[in-house]
Amino acid sequence: MSEATGGHRGIDPRGPRFTAGITSLLLLVDVFLGLTGLSTARVPAGGWALPAASFADRVLDPAFLLLLALALLFVWGVASPRTAPWGALYRVAVQPRLTPPTEFEDPRPPRFAQGVGLFVTAIGLVLQLAGVPWALPIAAAMAFVASFLNAAFGLCLGCQLYLLLQRAGIVGRERPAAA
């Protein structure tokens, strides 16, 4: 255990990778839905279907609904990572079947990464509602790449961004000791 994690307060690094695996699978489905749905559809006159679609059609697009669900899961992961569904599933169903972790990691970078995922997916959702073609599948694809890199290779782009911002003194500053 490293001192950076505060001893036992660190998290099992396999948990965020498990979560990223499920998230990347769902994002891949969303990219497919976005590429085959309203977000990229053309009209016979040669323009894009999305700007002409009603607000209700934009919201009820399956790609939008799935990305909205994923954005809400990102919100949950930021607000209460301990109770977020995929993390809870890992702790209850997967972690007991594994050997105890040999290392723990600081929970702040993965939590920040959830916020980055929320930001990227929220941009795609807002642009879909604004009628911008291709925005939703592009946002979903960007989130997919980041999530897949974490799941497959343990490379958490959001965590790396957190560490860069921490070195710059922007995030993760330790609170002053109480007097």
From TrEMBL:
Keywords in alphabetical order: Membrane, Transmembrane, Transmembrane helix
Transmembrane regions: 18-39, 59-79, 116-136, 142-165
Protein name, entry field: DUF4395 domain-containing protein
Domain DUF4395 span(s) in chain numbering: 11-167
Lineage: Bacteria, Bacillati, Actinomycetota, Actinomycetes, Micrococcales
